[in-house]
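ok so for the tutorial part 2 we go from a plain amino acid sequence to predicted structure tokens. step 1 is just haveing the sequence, like this:
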Amino acid sequence: MPELNLLLELAKSTACHAGTQLLDSVTEGGKNYVQCRVQSKEIKAIADSILDRHILQALAPTGLAILSEESGYIPAQQQSNYWFIVDPLDGTFNFVKGLGPSAVSIALWQGDRPIFGVIYTVVGQNLIWGGAGMGAFADGRRISVSDTSNQAQASICTGFPVRFDVANEDAINDFLRIVRPYAKVRMLGSAAVSLVHVATGSADAYSEQNIMLWDVAAGLAIVDGAGGVGVIEKAGSDWCYKVFASNARLLSSYPGGTV
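step 2 — the prediction. this is what the tokens look like for a chain of 259 residues:
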């Protein structure tokens, strides 16, 4: 079994350093981007590649498997069911357009269970981390989910990921069934930052369909540490999921309502 405290400190220092690299990349053309060949609604920026190289170089010596949005799945160099899940820059479109939040996201999972997550926000330069059994913290301050129990008084963060088929009537109806009861609906353009808002209690719930695992892996762990709960269901292609996270009181209102 790996030393989890050492891995957590490695993830935290790596995320912070990557955030610094990201700010430096702006002067190196880091905001230059191209349309993704596979997903026409997705873009890839130079910053994504810069951060990916830096993070993988830092994590590789652990010998654990790594799943990265940019590099795919990298097998383990040792026998272990622990693995890192990395999104070097969640919210790339927001970053290159100056439109909204973006973040560096690093998670450690054991099999299909989140152990800890680390998120570094680009605009605020905040370090948020946590996991089940270890609590959750933002810049050293303990955070917790809200205690809202009434959807009509609650807020939900959501979005339309690039793999969400807006022409699919069933998918749209499913989306509306989830968000309609809430008082406020917010689309931030970053799943990681949306989950941070759930963990700090500034948002009450988060839901997205056809979202990729690297977008939510760290945030789900942090929500766990903040006293929240999450539901994650396979949604077709590799690493693609339907995700809901909230405080425990609101979970019962989610279709299926189980973890």
